[in-house]
Design goal:
With about 170 residues, the protein is of the alpha/beta class.
Length: about 170
């Protein structure tokens, strides 16, 4: 059984998904519902949702909550999970390029080559937006590229984190 909870954030409604113990999804208003083909119950009293809500409250209050305090279960291919784990290492207010992530994944998985485009696809399938900070990934030249919540929201989140925007562009 899967559970869903709606969190009202300063940037709109955020849907949280859980298997009962772990956070398995977080998507923004207007983003594809990752549970649309699954049975789930709306439930707001799960301990995991209380932990995530506190994390999000701290984040939107300008604090730097630690992802390590959240029970997260990543579901995907070895490659995708490796990309998402690297996203978790991007510091608050910092950005990295798709190419930098590709180099990390290449080394981590022992591959000869790794394309930044393949990394971009995995970043785009990130099941836990904001907490797994895919908004902190930019093009090698500083170009702000796609975000599930739209580029305006990506910019808003980066500014919220006091990210140096001087080298970033659309």
């Amino acid at each position: 059984m899967f559970y869903k909870y709606i969190y009202n954030s300063p940037i709109g409604k955020i849907s949280l998904a859980s298997d009962g113990e772990n956070l398995i999804g977080l998507w923004l208003e207007g983003q594809r519902d990752i549970l649309k083909d699954k049975d789930y119950l709306l439930k707001n009293d799960l301990p995991v949702f209380a932990k995530v809500e506190k994390w999000l409250n701290d984040y939107f209050a300008g604090k730097k909550p630690d992802i390590k305090n959240l029970p997260i279960k990543l579901q995907g291919s070895e490659f995708s999970v490796c990309v998402w784990q690297r996203l978790c290492q991007i510091e608050y207010g910092q950005t990295v390029s798709y190419g930098q992530i590709a180099n990390y994944v290449k080394q981590k998985l022992g591959k000869q080559k790794m394309s930044a485009q393949a990394v971009g696809r995995a970043v785009g399938r990130n099941p836990i937006a904001i907490i797994i900070p895919c908004h902190r990934v930019v093009g090698a030249s500083g170009k702000l590229t796609g975000y599930a919540g739209g580029l305006d929201l990506k910019i808003k989140l980066l500014k919220h984190e006091n990210c140096d925007m001087s080298k970033l562009y659309i």
